From TrEMBL:
Pathway listed: Cofactor biosynthesis; thiamine diphosphate biosynthesis; thiamine phosphate from 4-amino-2-methyl-5-diphosphomethylpyrimidine and 4-methyl-5-(2-phosphoethyl)-thiazole: step 1/1
UniProt keyword terms in alphabetical order: Magnesium, Metal-binding, Thiamine biosynthesis, Transferase
Reaction catalysed by this enzyme: 4-methyl-5-(2-phosphooxyethyl)-thiazole + 4-amino-2-methyl-5-(diphosphooxymethyl)pyrimidine + H(+) = thiamine phosphate + diphosphate; 2-[(2R,5Z)-2-carboxy-4-methylthiazol-5(2H)-ylidene]ethyl phosphate + 4-amino-2-methyl-5-(diphosphooxymethyl)pyrimidine + 2 H(+) = thiamine phosphate + CO2 + diphosphate; 2-(2-carboxy-4-methylthiazol-5-yl)ethyl phosphate + 4-amino-2-methyl-5-(diphosphooxymethyl)pyrimidine + 2 H(+) = thiamine phosphate + CO2 + diphosphate
Taxon lineage: Bacteria, Bacillati, Actinomycetota, Actinomycetes, Micrococcales
InterPro entries xrefs: Aldolase_TIM, ThiamineP_synth_sf, ThiamineP_synth_TenI, TMP_synthase
GO molecular function: magnesium ion binding; thiamine-phosphate diphosphorylase activity
Residues that bind 2-[(2R,5Z)-2-carboxy-4-methylthiazol-5(2H)-ylidene]ethyl phosphate: T145, K146, T147, G176, V196, S197
Gene name for this UniProt entry: thiE
Protein name stated in the entry: Thiamine-phosphate synthase
Protein species of origin: Agromyces albus
Length: 219
């Protein structure tokens, strides 16, 4: 079974080195994965390629196949990591990053390629791509958040629901999400929730992740 076939987007962690603090990203990821995180996206806008490559290798060891490992933006680093045998599953791209088609060509059919989307024009662009080019959409922000100061206007749960209904791909909600948002977002059609502060800044990332996982599982 390929990683794409088994993709579980329900609880998705986006890392933030500043919020993780002195304990480090790997420690937070270890706890969060133990608590139920299913996807880890390494995001570090300030790191150079060599640093990100080393971080990917460290996180792959910590995760040990228990969650999907993606890198934000840097397709070149993902390619380099795979050439070194690091089990990184794919890449998440923004609207201004390397093109999705290039990522699919370089990483192959079984890699996971995610794309940030929050506007109807983004959906139209995806619809023009060959089927299978993108695996999921990261949609937000849901609420204003300090972790991405240049974010677009907040969608709220209702705005997310409208976007998800119009999308053919699974939509992961992101941006200022708290525990109380999980149920409403799932009811609104989310394939998962992506969190940053709620896990990276948590005193106990494992417990925080377990609470999010439990909230997702409630019907």
């Amino acid at each position: 079974m390929s990683t794409r076939t088994a993709l579980d987007l329900s609880l998705y962690l986006v890392t933030d080195a500043t919020l993780c603090g002195p304990r480090g990203v790997a420690s937070v990821v270890a706890g969060a994965v133990a608590g139920g995180v299913r996807v880890v996206q390494l995001r570090d806008k300030s790191a150079d390629a060599a640093t990100m490559l080393a971080q990917l290798e460290e996180l792959a060891g910590v995760i040990d196949g228990r969650a999907v490992l993606l890198l934000n933006d840097r397709l070149d680093v993902v390619v380099a990591a795979r050439e070194r045998g690091v089990p990184v599953d794919g890449v998440h791209l923004g609207q201004r990053d390397d093109t999705v088609l290039e990522a699919r060509e370089l990483l192959g059919a079984d890699a996971i390629v995610g794309l940030t989307a929050n506007h109807p024009t983004h959906l139209a662009a995806v619809e023009r791509m060959p089927r299978g080019s993108v695996d999921y959409l990261g949609v937000g922000v849901i609420h204003p958040t300090k972790t991405k100061p240049d974010h677009p206007p907040a969608l709220g749960v209702d705005g997310f629901a409208r976007f998800a209904r119009a999308a053919e791909l699974p939509c992961v909600a992101i941006g200022g999400i708290t525990l109380d948002d999980v149920g409403p977002l799932r009811a609104a059609g989310a394939a998962g929730v992506a969190v940053v502060s709620a896990l990276c800044a948590a005193s106990d990332p494992r417990d925080a992740a377990a609470r999010f996982a439990a909230a997702w599982g409630e019907r």
